[in-house]
Automatic annotation (TrEMBL):
Residues 6-73 form the HTH gntR-type domain. InterPro entries: GntR_C, TF_FadR/GntR_C, Tscrpt_reg_HTH_GntR, WH-like_DNA-bd_sf, WH_DNA-bd_sf. PANTHER family: GLUCONATE OPERON TRANSCRIPTIONAL REPRESSOR, TRANSCRIPTIONAL REGULATOR, GNTR FAMILY. It comes from Sphingomonas yabuuchiae. CDD domains: WHTH_GntR. This is GntR family transcriptional regulator. Pfam families: FCD (PF07729), GntR (PF00392). One of its GO terms (molecular function) is DNA-binding transcription factor activity. Keywords: DNA-binding, Transcription, Transcription regulation. Gene3D superfamilies: GntR ligand-binding domain-like, Winged helix-like DNA-binding domain superfamily/Winged helix DNA-binding domain.
């Protein structure tokens, strides 16, 4: 029975997470757990487990006697997330390119193809596919702690990725930058990988600063 509950909690986690990232769940309003449980056809136990996990991931906050809330997007948080990515990701991806196997390279190619397909046919999957591509460039390094830190930052960045891609033309630019990055990574050109990724992350941060300052 416990295995079933964990599986159900995981499914609920995925559904709610997608709603948060897409903006379907409004910020700073309490999540109505009774209504959500009824809508999903589940009990409150796996729902609460999923909400608690989403809080651990930084997508929700909780207040005593008021429940869970979707965290607001903010310029300060974006600054911190993307500065940390700049400190870790370019160097890790560059070093990973040097040791990547043929299988690792195939995974990276497939991840970018999936991202391109999502950008064309399934926009609700773009943030997730973007994360998968970026992590595919780091995973071959085999540095578990570094990977975990970057993965955590990628999860927190997903809502900002969605926000960043809203203006027209941003998706085309991201597409070009990703393909140039992958070409350099496949060529094991560490300097170009680090340079391209630094520019890519940095340009996104500059855009977000302008979008999120109100």
């Amino acid at each position: 029975m416990s295995l079933v509950v964990r599986t159900l909690s995981e499914q609920i986690f995925t559904i709610i997470r997608e709603r948060i990232i897409s903006g379907d769940l409004p910020e700073e309003q309490p999540i109505r757990q009774d209504a959500l449980a009824n809508e999903l056809g589940v009990s409150k136990i796996p729902l609460r487990e999923a909400l608690a996990r989403l809080e651990q991931e930084g997508l929700l906050t909780s207040q005593a006697n008021r429940g869970f809330f979707v965290r607001s997007l903010g310029a300060g948080e974006a600054e911190e997330i993307y500065e940390l990515r700049l400190a870790l990701e370019p160097d890790a991806a560059a070093r990973a390119s040097r040791v990547a196997t043929a299988e690792d390279q195939a995974v990276a190619r497939e991840a970018l193809t999936a991202l391109d397909v999502a950008a064309r046919d399934a926009l609700h999957e773009v943030a997730h596919r973007n994360r998968a591509f970026h992590l595919a460039l780091v995973r071959p390094l085999g540095a578990a702690l570094t990977f975990q830190l970057i993965e955590r930052l990628q999860v927190l960045a997903e809502r900002y990725v969605v926000q960043h891609l809203k203006p027209a033309g941003r998706e085309d630019r991201a597409h070009e930058e990703h393909h140039a990055l992958l070409d350099a990574w496949l060529a094991r050109d560490e300097a170009r990988v680090a340079g391209f990724l630094t520019e890519h992350i940095g340009a996104t941060l500059v855009d977000l600063r302008a979008q999120l300052i109100r």
